[in-house]
Design brief:
The protein is mostly helical and 65 residues long. The chain contains two helices and no strands.
Length: 65
């Protein structure tokens, strides 16, 4: 399709609602995916750091006995 004006492009040949809704849903899902992934990453890193500290404490306790 060839559009001659911005309004014609935004109207998408009468299918604007469906086209822009599809774009909105896609970008919304991507945003949610990115945000949850970043949140999970920080939780996993904290969990790993806590586990390493716990293992180090266990090593020290075993060595002192």
């Amino acid at each position: 399709m060839q559009y001659h004006s911005l309004a014609e492009f935004l109207n998408m040949g009468g299918y604007a609602f469906f086209v822009w809704l599809a774009y909105g849903v896609t970008f919304g899902c991507l945003a949610v995916l990115i945000i949850t992934t970043l949140g999970q990453e920080s939780r996993v890193l904290k969990h790993i750091a806590n586990k390493m500290k716990r293992e180090e404490r266990l090593k020290q306790n075993r060595g002192s006995k």
